[in-house]
Design a protein that fits this description.
The chain has 126 residues and is α+β, with helices and mostly antiparallel strands. Helix content is 24%, strand content 24%. The chain has a three-stranded antiparallel beta sheet with strand order 2-7-6, with no helix packed on it. A hairpin with a 2-residue loop joins strand 6 and strand 7. Helix 1 crosses helix 2. The mean pLDDT is 94.
């Protein structure tokens, strides 16, 4: 049994063991942005064994002044370019962006807990 995670300022807890049964709803579903900064780009490119420029061309797109990881369209859904359906996991988990590391504790969800619960089975009231 996994210990639930709490974070100050959030009215819910997160049980990471739910990730084993979830079908990666945080990595798939509606289209969105997975922003990465320069340090994250370098870390992921290195982890993938790619030159930064090659990595950026293959896996990123510019969103305003930021870079975001590309998605793949699968049927009526979208999934992160680094989501692996076979393992139901992240191919770059060890170096995943901060945006992914901090999910589900995003400021956006502080006032949208019901919406978050629909996406993430690991979220429960504190």
């Amino acid at each position: 049994m996994s210990d639930k995670i709490t974070q100050e300022g959030f009215s819910y807890t997160f049980d990471p063991s739910a990730c084993e049964t979830c079908q990666a709803r945080c990595c798939t579903g509606e289209s969105g942005y997975i922003h990465v900064n320069h340090q994250e780009i370098e870390a992921i490119a290195s982890f993938a064994g790619l030159d930064n420029d090659v990595f950026m061309q293959r896996f990123l797109f510019k969103n305003g002044y930021k870079y975001s990881i590309k998605e793949r369209k699968v049927a009526e859904s979208y999934e992160c370019a680094f989501y692996d359906r076979a393992s139901n996991g992240c191919m770059i988990y060890e170096v995943r962006p901060m945006q992914c590391r901090t999910f589900p504790f995003w400021d956006y969800f502080k006032t949208r807990v019901d919406e978050l619960k629909l996406e993430c089975p690991g979220v429960a009231d504190a």
